[in-house]
Amino acid sequence: MKTINDFNFENKKALIRVDFNVPLNDSFEVTDETRIQAAKPTIIKVLEDGGSAVLMSHLGRPKGVQDEFSLRHIVDKVSEVLGVQVKFVPNCAGQEAEDAVAKLGSGEVLLLENLRFHPSETAGDVDFAEKLSKLGDIYVNDAFGTAHRAHASTTIVAQFFPEDKCFGSLLAKEIESIDKVLRSGEKPITAVLGGSKVSSKITIIENILDKVDHLIVGGGMTYTFIKAQGGQIGDSICEDDKQELALNILKQAKEKGVQIHLPVDVLGADAFDNNANTKVVDVKEIPEGWQGLDAGPETMKNFHEVILASKTILWNGPLGVFEMENFAKGTIALGDSIAEATKNGAFSLVGGGDSVAAVKQFGFGDKVSYVSTGGGAMLESLEGKTLPGIAAIKK
Asked: Which of 197, 284, 301, 311 is catalytic?
């Protein structure tokens, strides 16, 4: 696996695919700079070597050229984060972009305009990818969030750099972290899968059952498993057409020697509302008119013991409706358990939109080993799929 550490960028122009698809407010100010910070080590390495960095990214899903999606809005924030005044060119391919790159000196950074202003980007157009390839000497992919897309800038462009292509430090870390969970992790390995639907996690479950020792199931998909086993779940969320699938997962786990841990009690509510009446109930005896919205105290205790005995931990999905304060305790308790296990030497990887949001909201970011930046890419990796953006560098 070639990374930026295998190259010296002195007097070289690095064409770096970053993921600067950041949120903006109504004044076009960046409201979360996490993705820019994540790309910083790669860019700084290039500059410190004596090279220059040409950054390409998308922003949003524009229909043609739309100023609200212009990357010029983020130039000041990128400059602030990098500590270098970033130059900008209002195109990402063609003569204007090539001229801007030609003027770029060592230690300088150029940000290209939004790739998705060109339909050729998402179409994976070879001619467009060739135009992009003229903007650098070495191609660096550091955009894990888009590695599952076979777009011109994430995959196709790599073919024009047969030897001079590599992973940036962020993408390399993502690959290594997922590898630790799926292939090289120290046992026991525990996966925590939460969220509302079994259907959205089924391919992940099927792929990781051969790799993990423990599987903790939480969140809304709990109730599909409980109902399938004859439990009473009241008005809790349930995928009735996935009950047979849930039973099959339990059967497969047993055959493979994987221990599945389901909640034993939940915090029930008489409405989907932060101010609803609540009570702790047995997960198999939720009364009509009530629904489980969070893990109960016994469940938290059980999960805590499993987590603390683990050496490798994957966390994907919350244990309750953490967006509502009164139903966030289970997710917070899980975060505390994973943080404690990590402090004791376990490796912990957090990935997937909701769990990453929870980690940020409750301040667990620096208490776990790694927080993945790529939602869809992370999930596809866990499903065992080969991501085209990664395959293109390894060729």
From this structure: 197
Q: Is the separation of the CB atoms in 28 and 71 below 8 Å? A: no
The mean pLDDT of 329-350, rounded to a whole number, is 96
Q: Is 35 designated active site? A: yes
Over residues 190-214, the pLDDT tens digits come to 999 998 888 888 888 988 999 999 9
CA distance 362 to 259: 28
* Residue 320 among the catalytic residues: no
Q: Per the residue annotation, which of 107, 353, 375, 384 is the catalytic one?
A: 353
What is the residue whose two structure tokens read 């304060």?
325
The CA dihedral of 160, 166, 169, 171, to the nearest 10 degrees, is: 70
Q: Tokens at residue 292, please?
A: 């489980």
Cβ(393)–Cβ(17) below 8 Å: no
pTM exceeds 0.70 for this model: yes
pLDDT for the residue numbered 198? 84
Clarify whether 185 is annotated catalytic: no
